[in-house]
């Protein structure tokens, strides 16, 4: 009985891809549940509390968009033949940094540094889009 390395590595790769797909599917369902909870929370915040705390409302809306972007990333993974598009990660990074800027009203230098981080992410996005580095 001869050991066929190529046959076993393909089986291992298929098993790991199946495991990854199942895990991402479960993650997508959990994120969809969290997105639904966030919608209900925002709705209750608006109807019960009114618009007393604008920062908290904006923070919750940005959390909603983070859930939405992660779900979109999982969907795009399956649509694009098991590939995570780079531009989606950059969009998620930009949204996360904006959320940090809104929620942390600390030192102005921190806000400036975070804003520079957004500019760096935007430059990276332009480079990715212009050079077609992201295969879709």
From TrEMBL:
<feature type="transmembrane region" description="Helical">
    <location>
        <begin position="109"/>
        <end position="128"/>
    </location>
</feature>
<dbReference type="Pfam" id="PF06146">
    <property type="entry name" value="PsiE"/>
</dbReference>
<keyword id="KW-0472">Membrane</keyword>
<keyword id="KW-1133">Transmembrane helix</keyword>
<dbReference type="InterPro" id="IPR020948">
    <property type="entry name" value="P_starv_induced_PsiE-like"/>
</dbReference>
<dbReference type="GO" id="GO:0016036">
    <property type="term" value="P:cellular response to phosphate starvation"/>
</dbReference>
<keyword id="KW-0812">Transmembrane</keyword>
<feature type="transmembrane region" description="Helical">
    <location>
        <begin position="15"/>
        <end position="36"/>
    </location>
</feature>
<protein>
    <recommendedName>
        <fullName>Protein PsiE</fullName>
    </recommendedName>
</protein>
<keyword id="KW-1003">Cell membrane</keyword>
<feature type="transmembrane region" description="Helical">
    <location>
        <begin position="84"/>
        <end position="102"/>
    </location>
</feature>
<feature type="transmembrane region" description="Helical">
    <location>
        <begin position="57"/>
        <end position="78"/>
    </location>
</feature>
<dbReference type="GO" id="GO:0005886">
    <property type="term" value="C:plasma membrane"/>
</dbReference>
<comment type="similarity">
    <text>Belongs to the PsiE family.</text>
</comment>
<dbReference type="InterPro" id="IPR009315">
    <property type="entry name" value="P_starv_induced_PsiE"/>
</dbReference>
